[in-house]
Amino acid sequence: MDATLLQAETELLMESINYTWILIATFLIFFMHAGFAMLEAGQVRSKNVANQLTKNLLTWSVGVTVFFLIGVGVEGVVAGSGFTPGFQSDATGWMDWLYGAVFAMTAATIVSGAVAGRAKLRAYVTYTFLLAAVIYPVVTGLTWAGGYIETITGTPFADFAGGMIVHGMGGIAGLTAAWVLGPRMDRYNSDGTANVIPGHSLTFAVLGTLILAFGWYGFNVGTSAIIDMENGVFLGDQLGRVAMTTTIAMACGAMGAGLVAWLKTGKVDTLYVANGLLAGLVGITAIPNTTAWWGAFVVGGLAGAQLPLVFEFVEQYLKIDDVCAVFPVHGSAGILGTLLFPFVAAPGVVDSVANAFVAQLTGVVLISAWTIATTATIWYAFKAAGQARVSAAHERDGLDVSEHGVDTYPEFGQPDVATDGGSADEVIRTDGGEPTDGQIKMVTAIVRPDRLGQIKTALADVGAPSLTVTNVSGRGSQPAKKGQWRGEEYTVDLHQKVKIECVVADIPAGDVVDAIRGAAETGEPGDGKIFVMPVEDAMQVRTGNTGPDAV
After folding, report:
1. What is the pLDDT of residues 129-144, one digit of tens each?
2. Alpha helix (H) ranges present in 201-292?
3. Contact (CB, 8 A) for 449 and 457
């Protein structure tokens, strides 16, 4: 066979392997959006969960199409290669576009966590459009595509997988948007002290963290090709180093954040451990291909350790309500890892520590200045037009209802209503028993939510299946509890209960009371109370029957 033909076939095979690898990494990075959705949903209140999930869905949907039509072209203009939108490319170019798009959408979705709970959907989507079309493409045009920092400093800017270009930029954008938007209602008191507003689900937050960590292998390891096309060499050394440093930094980030939280409060805060794991990943993302094994411990540990300290600074001193801690997780951790490059590099990587640090610092300053300026301008424009933030009433009601008309938890999410499924064909009726001396009586019970199922069964057994259930909170003999959210302690003195109301006419109220008590009792303070009250009259809406016949 002709040598030229053999060489062509070999090059085609190597290119095919590399692009297959890139697509696999791309799909892993896309799956990170599931992690972002769960992480952010867990850190917001239950009344804002659907809004946060919608923002994540629209970040991808709007951003990826805008990046295809406009963003890649803007990146080319900034890099000096001209405006070439995605639809003017070929099949290979479309794979490159998709790989770039998942990075761009990662930067975009970070912002949603910072402005959760008060930003209008239309404002957030418009900002996502502009970020995907202009803000992020200019950053990549100046760095990965254009290499302008090397032109300025004489030394390349090292950001292997986007520690600063993607995560640092996203964290800074989120902090800026949150600053312009202002804090959530009730986040700060008149004297400037902060109130803790816990998220609704640590389970979601930790699940999201682990999904993100899984996808991060695509983010970091997938950034490296498998084969060096110029020399036809398998890049096993680089792949191994990236996989090792990514894993070690991830682990040390969790331990670093947990240690600092423990030193500050005497307890290892679960959310800080989860956020610290991500901060460790962010810290190493700029330099996983060059860092020495011991450097991964340093970068990850410091990225995790700075998290509680930076979050406290942002909350207590800057008075910025960064709901999902996107700046300490993505912003400051990304900056830290990028600047540490020359100090933790493996032997032979860096010729001059000083020159390398100047290049890294130049890149950080340039990206930060551009991101702050553009993000602040856009959100101030929204604010001036009255389109940045939802109304006070809508914020109190929750963005799920005001922005989407849905309730993420229709059975237990509303403070004033609770429903409990059951069969649509079931016939509810009261019968049997002895009359209650001719009077209508209402039995009201305030009990633990977890006893509701047993109480329903007990009421049905005594012939009183009709009831109304409401989610309530209150306090009585049950002692207050102490809670922590990101290391800050708060008092829980209003305990979650359910209020059960059962009106009876032909069943002894005493039987109903006994049934509820038997099913609700645990023997611990907080089991609740039962009240029996006379009802003056009743009317059945459908038939117009009154008195006992209506019941």
Report:
1. 999 999 999 999 999 9
2. 202-220, 236-265, 270-285
3. no
